[in-house]
Design goal:
508 residues, alpha/beta, Rossmann fold, 3 domains, 17 helices, 26% strand, binds adenosine-5'-triphosphate, binds magnesium ion
Length: 508
């Protein structure tokens, strides 16, 4: 028997003018974790979608267990023993865990609820998944939902597991659990393909790394011969600076955002905002840190008109904007990089150029008497695409054709370019490659230096540390502490995240 469970041979995929995969070879050994690395738009998701039967390759051949196979649907992939966990989970929230797990098995099984639950429990205990078959998906935190996705794959008897950016939405402790599970699985001979932009993770969990660049395979290396810096260089073809250069904020007294005694009903009890006060000045980046789900989303939604305020006030540039519509808040020169780029950040049925000027569709420069000036539109779109290095085949493609990271760049470019007074950025670099993160960090500091007040919500401590002029930490819907520029350290933020009070030092 071949030691390779999978061999993808000279895979090519063409979308219109874009060659997303250009004669790519990839092999996976039995019991290994292969990381797939590459810049935004390099072709990683496309290659995996081909392997999972979602796209038909333009040319090339796949061998599974040494046999040539034709994978023309996910059902066929599952039948062969290939499972995929997408970045955006495919679970049905109103259904229970066990229902989601057996869903889609089609007419091949006669449903035996008790047996299904028993099998789920056995798999869960074998691979340290804390999944209760009777729990409802909508009540589970993201980390557990991901475990259900993995269980779903195992339940179907898969031997090869594809994970597309699985850690983007996980808390640090959820990530530790995921890695434990992956190690257990490989011990039992399972193979894993792991896509991530986080080089530390790739170094920690993978055995080998295959690097793609603009659709082509650059090479495959043993992880043990690599460092984070070497991987970055392989990937983007130059050295990447992992630290941010930032001068101190000029310290204006000009209050752009003032939040007074704000209370907002949350999605959960822990995220309900209680009597929160906050001020951000012009030319300042305020970092909001904390474990996800402690009121950060609700805070952002209340400021931007996406969630009702129960009591208290939101002032922008001194004007009361409490409970105003998102359109009015945009008019007050507020920009938003939202948490959910698909639902809130972009209009699916619009093409890329329209999404790029979405904020300005009624601006006379682009629209007179209800008629769009396509020349002006295209010019602006081209400039932005160039500056932000957005990789796409055509401006006119729907945004759905963009890779995850490139869609994020479209939203970031549009919002930062609008020259906002207040820029609210939630997880701005989630899903971006290391080179793009470096660029976006520069842009956020530029926006600050141009006088914007920036509210930066991020789950990445390093991002908070390197960009913020001031940090507040949220815990249970309250601000558990504030740190001035000189006090911002990993340790102090960590303590505040747990809801602890710092001994007398905080300046708020
Ligand atoms: N359905 C499609 N139609 C047209 N072009 C597409 C389609 N799917 C992907 N592409 C293009 O193929 C290229 C590769 O995209 P892919 O999603 O594979 O990138 P990726 O490596 O996963 O990037 P990211 O890290 O940003 O997720 C991109 O330029 C993308 O715009
Ligand atoms: Mg992708």
């Amino acid at each position: 028997m071949s030691k390779h469970i999978l061999r993808m041979d000279q895979i090519t995929k063409v979308f219109g003018k874009m060659t997303a995969n250009d004669h790519v070879d990839l092999t996976v050994r039995k019991g290994e974790i292969l990381a797939l690395l590459g810049e935004n738009g390099a072709g990683k998701s496309t290659l995996m979608n081909i392997l999972y039967g979602l796209y038909k390759p333009t040319s090339g051949q796949i061998y599974f267990n040494g046999e040539p196979v034709s994978i023309n649907s996910p059902l066929k992939a599952i039948e062969l023993g290939i499972g995929m966990v997408h970045q955006h989970f495919m679970l049905i929230p109103a259904f229970k865990v066990w229902e989601n797990v057996v869903l889609g098995l089609g007419g091949r099984v006669i449903l035996d609820e008790a047996a299904a639950k028993e099998k789920i429990r056995a798999l869960a205990s074998e691979y340290q998944l804390e999944v209760d078959p009777d729990a409802r998906i909508s009540n589970l935190p993201v980390g557990l939902q991901q475990q259900v996705e993995i269980l779903k794959v195992l339940y179907r008897g898969s031997r090869l597991l594809i994970l597309d950016e699985p850690t983007g939405v996980l808390t640090p402790s959820e990530k530790v659990k995921l890695f434990q599970t992956l190690r257990e699985l490989t011990k039992d001979g399972f193979s894993v393909i792991f896509i991530s932009h986080k080089l530390d993770e790739v170094m920690e969990i993978s055995d080998r790394v295959t690097v793609l660049c603009r659709g082509k395979k650059i090479g495959t290396v043993d992880t043990k011969d690599m460092t984070k810096e070497k991987l970055a260089r392989l990937m983007v073809g130059r050295d990447v600076v992992f630290t941010v250069e930032k001068t101190a904020s000029k310290g204006s007294q000009d209050k752009v955002l003032e939040i007074q005694d704000l209370s907002v009903k949350g999605r959960r009890l822990a995220s309900t905002i209680k009597h929160l006060n906050l001020t951000i000045h012009a030319g300042e980046i305020l970092g909001v840190s904390g474990v996800d789900g402690n009121g950060q989303s609700e805070l952002v939604e209340a400021i931007t008109g996406l969630r009702p305020v129960e009591s208290g006030k939101v002032l922008i540039d001194g004007k009361d904007m409490t409970n105003r519509s998102p359109a009015e808040i945009i008019k007050a020169k507020t920009a938003l990089v939202p948490e959910d780029r698909k639902k809130v950040g972009s209009v699916k049925s619009y093409n890329i150029e329209k999404n790029l000027i979405l904020r300005d569709l009624t601006n006379p420069a682009y629209c007179k008497h209800g008629i769009l000036n396509y020349k002006a539109l295209e010019k602006t779109a081209d400039e932005i695409i160039q500056e932000y290095d957005i990789r796409l085949s055509e401006r006119q493609s729907p945004v759905g054709a963009l890779s995850g990271g490139n869609l994020q760049k479209v939203i970031l470019a549009r919002e930062i370019k609008s020259q906002p007074r207040l820029l609210v950025a939630m997880h701005p670099t989630r899903g971006l490659d290391v080179g793009a993160i470096e660029f976006i960090h520069k842009k956020l500091i530029e926006a600050r230096d141009a006088g914007a007040a920036v509210l930066l919500v991020s789950a990445e401590l390093e991002e908070i540390l390197s960009l913020s002029d001031r940090v507040v930490v949220m815990s249970g819907g309250r601000i558990s502490g504030e740190l001035g520029e000189k006090d911002i350290t990993m340790e102090k933020i960590g303590l505040l995240m747990g809801g602890e009070k710092l001994g007398g030092s905080a300046n708020g």
